[in-house]
Amino acid sequence: MTDLDLSSAHARLRASNPLIQCITNTVVQQFSANVLLAVGASPAMLDHDADAAQFAHLAGGLLINFGTATNQQFLAADAAIEAVTADAKPWVLDPVSIGAADFRTTRIRRAAAAGPTAIRGNASEIAALAGAGAGGRGVESTDEVDAVLPAAADLARATGAIVAVSGARDAVVAHIDGVDHVARIDGGHAFMPLVIGTGCSLGAVTTAYLAAVPPAGTSSQAGPAGVGALERFTAVVAAHAHFAVAGEAAATGALGPGRYAMNFLDALFTTDDDRIARSRVAVTAA
Amino acid sequence: MTDLDLSSAHARLRASNPLIQCITNTVVQQFSANVLLAVGASPAMLDHDADAAQFAHLAGGLLINFGTATNQQFLAADAAIEAVTADAKPWVLDPVSIGAADFRTTRIRRAAAAGPTAIRGNASEIAALAGAGAGGRGVESTDEVDAVLPAAADLARATGAIVAVSGARDAVVAHIDGVDHVARIDGGHAFMPLVIGTGCSLGAVTTAYLAAVPPAGTSSQAGPAGVGALERFTAVVAAHAHFAVAGEAAATGALGPGRYAMNFLDALFTTDDDRIARSRVAVTAA
Amino acid sequence: MTDLDLSSAHARLRASNPLIQCITNTVVQQFSANVLLAVGASPAMLDHDADAAQFAHLAGGLLINFGTATNQQFLAADAAIEAVTADAKPWVLDPVSIGAADFRTTRIRRAAAAGPTAIRGNASEIAALAGAGAGGRGVESTDEVDAVLPAAADLARATGAIVAVSGARDAVVAHIDGVDHVARIDGGHAFMPLVIGTGCSLGAVTTAYLAAVPPAGTSSQAGPAGVGALERFTAVVAAHAHFAVAGEAAATGALGPGRYAMNFLDALFTTDDDRIARSRVAVTAA
């Protein structure tokens, strides 16, 4: 339980059906699209440099993931990031494959410096991006979430982004009005990392929750500058809570990752506001 | 029920196991391949400009879908379309993402002008291609099928293509010997648009049904020129009836889109001639 | 039953969790990644020419499959093959789509000449690569495994590679110390070829089993030069036995390829050393 209003974050996502542009790796495109549909968002995977920016102006949010990036995708990402930045719309960077090779590490660092609303990765990826680790080997995590928390907080301060670390117990870190907010989310299942795309699609869903946050000044909670930041933090935590809840429910009847993946899509779909509100989330601010 | 011989169209597809070349978006390649295999066709996704045309000469039909098109795919499509046109083999255009951005809209219109045997899209895509709407936002439909029927008929007359509009109640429109033929197909399920690729793979299956139509002059119904056109119309309707039937059956036991997607592949596979013949199809000619 | 120690090959794979780089076609990337995860390996699909070689130095093995190859992938493959060859690490060539068109056939032959540890394809693909057949039409096989065995043995002798032929009854052929070793593996199910990627992902799993073979000189069976070759032959046979066993088990409760595909991932995951040891494998050496 938490004081964050995760239930409303979920309700807003379902109500707004945001269009999410994903410039993402081809391994997880199908799964990410199905995940977005299951949570009530609309996926669009346009990634051509000739029109990615034009499309980004239509989208509600943008996900960048360079796991199998092509030159076309690198150029499309540059243009789309510019477009959503100009529109003050949220975008999320998934640093998957950082540290694996110099070329893509350079491009990922460049994207991180462009001001993402949120950065979501596993522990080794976040450590690598923060300069505190060697990076991952593909989509796997070798570091632990707890160990990487200080690096995640540094990264949040340095970039202004909300930083989310996926693992057995997820963490979401944000630096708001000089205070470090840390949410820890329990849930999921050991089968989750055996289904390709569960991490990458969480980046897509994080984008969808952020896209459903009301624009500044329109919120019912309008007030000091930090309110928008807190709503974005809540959105990122809600995305992780949604996955944690569905990831736990998906284990029912699953003997392995095949059935689990199917159940997971169904659980994402059937999870409602009330269930999200009862997710196991602990928040500290210091 | 209908006078169209959908049962024979299905039997011919199963008997001929046509090789279908798909130059299609990477989000739906896997699902489209599995769908083609489930209905008895053989998929091939070769999309390199260096050999797409050579391969097209081997294929029984060609699907073009520019959802995540690369320059390689645009060039491959140009060449493959030329090849199947020279061979008088069927090809289908799925205008997904038309209207989303100028660059790809231009390429989609160019393909539409190259004489596709059929065009299959959702209502907003067909409206956009016919010049009567703003286009879709990704794979979603925002217009209704009924509203777009006049535009679909215009498009069929203008291009000579059979035009299929997917929605809660699909429509297939063809202009044959000066008469507008319209088939309406009932079936499917609300989960269907929550599974990525159900629309795009219907384009692939439409191609497969068309590839199974006997070449002109070899038909048992040989006769006036309109016979070939009527058989192609029947093939497109049969593809949609097959999806409608399987889409309805797939809901059994499904709590969400995960289980539904699995059931759908099984239902496509188990649907037989007799079940296709009993699909809910209404045809008018005026 | 066989004298080959398939059980230990499987145990080593589970214990070593090898990182497998796949430069493979986009149709099967997701399925192949899920299959690798299910058997205990870690997939990475990096395929950019700028860093594929650098990443290959980190990987335990490399799979090359040009089914939907782009120019980027062709260049990445050249570089990655050089890297793993320099490191004396295993790599596997899947000649899917050979014979379909001249351009890719040329590139596949070039890769075959670069000294793969193993070559895995269906009967028509192996026949085409050996110069004894016309090649496949996509991912399908039109020749039979038995008929292609002599060509497979020729290919093994000519290239030094272990040659695996997939079909109703798989064959693995290796020329070791002047003797042709042939293993025949029974299992699988008629639904298997109706699931896209079951062949292509077997290439990935073959790479994973090979990556788990202890380096020369460290084996408990250290001895004559042929020992390493025999362990690699055992690894390739074990990969096929794993698929045969899981492919058979996956049929339980499956009415079609949808449920079968899900079951197959679960069966790959739950198959243990003991079950692999009891697979139906017959080996001859002559």
TrEMBL record, chains A, B, C:
One GO MF term: kinase activity
InterPro entries, per database record: Hyethyz_kinase, Ribokinase-like
Kinase is among the record's keywords: yes
Pathway: Cofactor biosynthesis; thiamine diphosphate biosynthesis; 4-methyl-5-(2-phosphoethyl)-thiazole from 5-(2-hydroxyethyl)-4-methylthiazole: step 1/1
Superkingdom as given in the UniProt entry: Bacteria
Keywords, sorted A to Z: ATP-binding, Kinase, Magnesium, Metal-binding, Nucleotide-binding, Thiamine biosynthesis, Transferase
EC number: 2.7.1.50
Residues that hold substrate according to the record: M45, G197
Binding sites annotated in the UniProt record for ATP: R120, S166
Keyword Metal-binding: yes
Name the record gives this protein: Hydroxyethylthiazole kinase
Similarity comment: family membership: Belongs to the Thz kinase family.
Cofactor(s) the protein needs: Mg(2+)
Pfam families on file: HK
